[in-house]
Every structure is written in C-alpha cells, then in structure tokens.
Amino acid sequence: MQKHTAISTIGEFGLIERIKELVNFRVDDASLHDNLIMGIADDAAVYRPTPGKVQLFTTDAFVEGIHFDLTFTALKHLGWKLMAANFSDIAAMGGIPRYATITLALPRKISIEMIEEFYNGASFACKKYSCLLVGGDTTSSLANMVISVAVTGEIDEQHVVYRTGAKPGDYICVTGHLGSSVAGLKILQREKKLFTDSPNQDKFRPNLEPYKAAIEKHLMPEPRLDLSRILTQQIKVNAMIDISDGLASEVHHLCKNSQVGAAVYEHNIPVESITQRIAEEFSQNPIDYALYGGEEYELLFTLGDDEYEKLEKLTNDVSIIGRITDKSNGIELIRENGESEPLRFGGWDHFKS
Amino acid sequence: MQKHTAISTIGEFGLIERIKELVNFRVDDASLHDNLIMGIADDAAVYRPTPGKVQLFTTDAFVEGIHFDLTFTALKHLGWKLMAANFSDIAAMGGIPRYATITLALPRKISIEMIEEFYNGASFACKKYSCLLVGGDTTSSLANMVISVAVTGEIDEQHVVYRTGAKPGDYICVTGHLGSSVAGLKILQREKKLFTDSPNQDKFRPNLEPYKAAIEKHLMPEPRLDLSRILTQQIKVNAMIDISDGLASEVHHLCKNSQVGAAVYEHNIPVESITQRIAEEFSQNPIDYALYGGEEYELLFTLGDDEYEKLEKLTNDVSIIGRITDKSNGIELIRENGESEPLRFGGWDHFKS
C-alpha cells in the first residue's frame, strides 16, 4: 500500500518546497526555459513573451465529486487530465501552451504522496506538450478537493481561430473519435458499484481490461495540439472549438457565435467499436455518448471544400460530420433513416437542477 | 431581504452569459481594451502584450471556511479581496495588472444574486486598478465554495524586483500599517459568536462601528500598486515581497531568498491605534497581530540609505522597521527593552495540524 504522510508534517511551506522540486523539469522547447526569468520562487512568475506573438490565456477547474471520483481516479491521471483540459483550450485557438499555474484546495485526506502523484501526472503532460509550471497556490479545504489551472499560450495573430468564423457551406469536422470518454466512465462507475456492493471486497477485482481504450480516453485524454497546428498553420479552418461538454453543446456554441445553422449527420459521427460495445452493454445509443458525453478534448471545426481537400492529404484522423447552413435552417441532426430533427442542446451543465 | 434565485434556473451557460455582462466594464487604461482581441467568448482569451515588456503571472485561491466565512463576508467584499490579493502579488514584483481569469466552484446555496455581488466587487477592484476580466470557469461544488483567480501583469524587465536582492546594511521597510486586518477579523468573529449565542437573534445588532477601520482593512484591503510604482520606477529597492501571511513569515521568506539575516525593531513596526485598542480588548499584543496576522497586502522591501533619502521625499506612508544583516546573525526581533530574540517563523500555515 502507498505511504500516506499528512501534509501537516511538513506544513504549507514544506509542501511548496516539495512542489518546486517536482516542477523542476526540462521540456524540449528550450525557448520556454530561456524566456522564463522567474518560476515558482517569488510573488509572481516572470517571463518574456515571444516578440510578435499574441498571448492566449485560459483556465479550467476540476472539483471532487463533480469532475472526478478519487475512488477510481489516480491523482496522477487527474494531474494529466486537468493539464490536458487546459491545453485543449489553447489548441482550440490554434496556439501552443507556454506557462501554467496550479491552485490546489486540499482536504486532510490528501497526503504528500498523493500530491507528488498529482504533480507527476501534470508534469508528464507538461513535458509532452512543452509547458512549464511556474506558479500556484496551495491551501487547505474543509471538504472536497478543488484544483484550478491557468495556462498562457502563444500564437501568431493571423493564425488565431475563433468560434465566430463558420460560414454557410463549410464542412463541419471533428478530430479523432467521440463518445469513448463517457463510455469509459460508465465502466468505472459500474465497477465501483460492484465493488461497493460486493460481500467480499478484499477479493473483488474490477473487470477493466476489455474496456481499456475507453477508460484511458476518460482518464488520460490527449489534447489535439498535433492537429491544431496542421489546421491553423498548414491549412485554414474558419472556426474551431474543443469538445469538452459533448458534441451537441459545442455545435450549438459554434453556431451561436458564428450566427449560422448546421446539419449534422448521425451516421458520420465517428464512434469506435469499443464505445459501441459499451453502449450496447448499457442498452444505450453510442451516438448519445458522442453528442452528450463530453470530456473528449477532440476539436470541432469548420472549413471550405478546398481546404478540406488539402487536409485530407495531411491526416486521416478527421471526419466530416455535416455542413454549416444558414441560421434560418436551425441546428439539425439528420438520422440514419434520413429524417431530421432539431439537435437538442445539451451536454454537461454544472447547475442543472 | 435579498432575492435568492437558484443558478439551476438559468444553468451554466445562462450564468456565463450573465457573467459576460457583468465584466463588460471599461477601465481608464485604454491600452487594455485596445490590446484585448478576445475576452470571455471563446476557448481562451487573446491579447497583445506590450512590446518590450515582460509578463507577470500569478494566482491565488480563497476557500470557504478557510479564507472566508459567508456569515460575515459579503460576496462583494470577497470579489474585491481576491482581486486585491492577486494584484498585491503583481505589486510585489513592481508591475501593473493587465488581465485576469476567475474560476468559481459553487455549492447550491450560492444564488445568482450572490454571484452578481461577487462580480460587482471583483469589477470594482478591476476598475480601480485597471485590469480586465477575460476568462474563467464556473462549476458546481458539493460542499464549500472555492474561488481561484489568475492574473497577468506587465513591467519593464529592468524594473522587476525579486525577493533575492536584499543586501546586508539595507533598511527593511514596510508600507502602511500592520495588524489591523486580523484585528478586524477578531471583531467579526466575536460578533458572530455573540449573534450565534444570542437568545434573541432577531434583535441582535453587531457592534461594528467603533472598529470600522480595522474591519474595512480586513474585508477590503488595498493592494499597494500606488507605492509599488514609486518604489520601482522613481527609486530603486533591492528586494520586495507582499505581506499576505504576516510580517514574520515574509521577513523569513525574503531573508531566505536573499541569503541574509535581519534585525527587526519591535517599536518601529507601524501599528494603528485602532489595532492597539482591539488587541487590548482581547488582552493580546498588537505586535503579534502585525507579526503573525497576515492578509494585509502591504509591501515589505529593502533598500540602501541613499535610496531611502529619496523615498522620504516622495511618500510618508513607509516605515523603517529594521536592517538587513549578515546571514550568520540570523533573523532577530529586538524588543522595546533592547533585548533581542530570534524572530519566530510563523504566520498563516494552511496545513498546521
């Protein structure tokens, strides 16, 4: 069993010293180190922005009991995922991440070893996507654990992609596959319940192996910084957003911001076989996982026919799922039988009653 | 009584729309608006940094039950104070704030009206100190309320002041007065207890008026961006830190970072008469409030004699409280009777057992 050392044994400042060691890693992009004048060791971090670039600035928070369940989420995965969620916002603008801060509100049950795990996961994501951890705040919490990350990024001004640029006639595309993150979550929740209900918990072994791909997508999603670069530097997409609250919600956001309508074809939504299999086990529709699941961190974007022709030659990891239409057409889902219906606005809403 | 509308009536996206309206204010520094290309309406904010300046980046979080008690803290004050705490970190580097993001983890008891109050307070601070709110994240919370703010700032690279520059022989100075924030908190806590214990709560009226100055300092502290400019642009200070965890703790941090010792003279620590009066009521030492109280957001800095002579002509809101010494001398507190003792390292530690 893992050691469990109370944070009170080293105190807040001891914890900060430990965190300083944990974030003292190198990334491949040496310019991040060269331009960082002061990291975690003063009242604020200090860095030189790259001349001529504009700055991106985003934040995302995860709350215990809402975004994660510590009974089946390792702190290492949590660290990765929160960084990935923020990097995904940078990717959705076409940029690259640069520097990040982390604030942690920690209940007593969280040990030093768990914090180390968290920073190992966060650092792993930072090393992979070239971002430096340069500041933060650590505080206690009386109840649940809350983590908030802020990230700055950079991009040439002319390459920034907004939600506002979609035009009638554009293809609507997504990267990767959708629905597997929520499918993985369903399995984790089912196995947790089986464990809780088990008369002999010591001998309980969760059955996760057959669902590994979906569970990994849920616990360690990859921000699409790879495709984001291609979409903004090598071709020209008109509008882009990341899929954090489910495809349906993001299509609505993009259309609202661009003042357009959309026709999304159900049978074109890319869903992996593992997701179909899990949905079957739960007697649910895998398309609903894609439309209303969320936490995918894939990208939704629109572009003209000519640009799509160029894109096809650069990657096979994107799918056309529909067309942007006139605003007056509304936002439609075309079912496999050809019938259309309004695409219900939905997705994860934190304040649903 | 104030209206109490559940956030679930408008949902997360309704709340975001409302927040967008609340942060749509103008500040005096037009360059902030001119350089902001995208605020809260996309995956990340986009802004042009001022050419030639370096960027500052800091974050600070407040947790219900740890940093604030909603029974005596209005959300408006909370919004102000969290912005002030972050601006204070920017001030401690010598910079000016530019753009900020806010993440909110909200339990069910928080109403739309309370969120509006919070943003009114935060906006009030932002307007006063010229900072734009450009992003954020809102989520529910199963238990306590947690708020996290990240702020970027700017400064000429040659004007940045670190914690590392203090030299033996330097004067140690502080801005304003110390100890009144915790004195104000003591009164608020006492009146809360009297209210809770009161047999007739309807008729209970807290006795706050005589302590107003201290309570204001606790609820609406001012970041010292005014003096920070003078200290870095008009004279040259060698090291600086803001006083968020109490003077003793900050002297230790500054000395540790600069590899020096210090002699702090008890009788030179600036304490207002209201703080002395409150400490007397509680039979406590007002100097302990200054040393171990915290949440003041005054600045602690060191500078040479010549620079102090210049500073004296520019402001009378700073006090010399001691001298930087050799590291081997340690960090001493010189009592009024001339006796010296090690300055106990202390202050607010979030993980004390």
Order of helices and strands of chain A: HHEEEHEHEEEHHHEHEHHEHEEE
Tell me the β content of chain A: 15-25%
- In helices, the fraction of residues of chain A equals 25-40%
Class by helix and strand content of chain A?
Answer: alpha+beta
CATH superfamily of the largest domain in chain A: PurM-like C-terminal domain
Beginning-to-end CA distance, first to last residue of chain A: 39 Å
Tell me the CATH topology of the largest domain in chain A. Phosphoribosyl-aminoimidazole Synthetase, Chain A, domain 2
Mean pLDDT across every amino acid position of chain A: 95
Describe the structure.
The structure is a homodimer of 353-residue chains. The first copy, chain A, has 353 residues and is α+β, with helices and mostly antiparallel strands. Chain A has 2 domains: 7-159, 60s Ribosomal Protein L30, Chain: A; 171-342, PurM-like C-terminal domain (Phosphoribosyl-aminoimidazole Synthetase, Chain A, domain 2, Alpha-Beta Complex), CATH 3.90.650.10. Chain A is built from 11 helices and 13 strands. In chain A, the strands form 3 sheets. In chain A, strands 8-10-7-11-9-12-13 form a 7-stranded mixed sheet, sandwiched between helices. Chain A has a 4-stranded mixed sheet with strand order 3-6-4-5. Chain A has a two-stranded antiparallel ribbon with strand order 1-2. In chain A, strand 1 and strand 2 form a beta hairpin. Chains A and B meet through helix 1, strand 2, strand 3, helix 3 and strand 4 of A and helix 1, strand 2, strand 3, helix 3 and strand 4 of B. Strand 3 of chain A pairs antiparallel with strand 2 (45-47) of chain B.
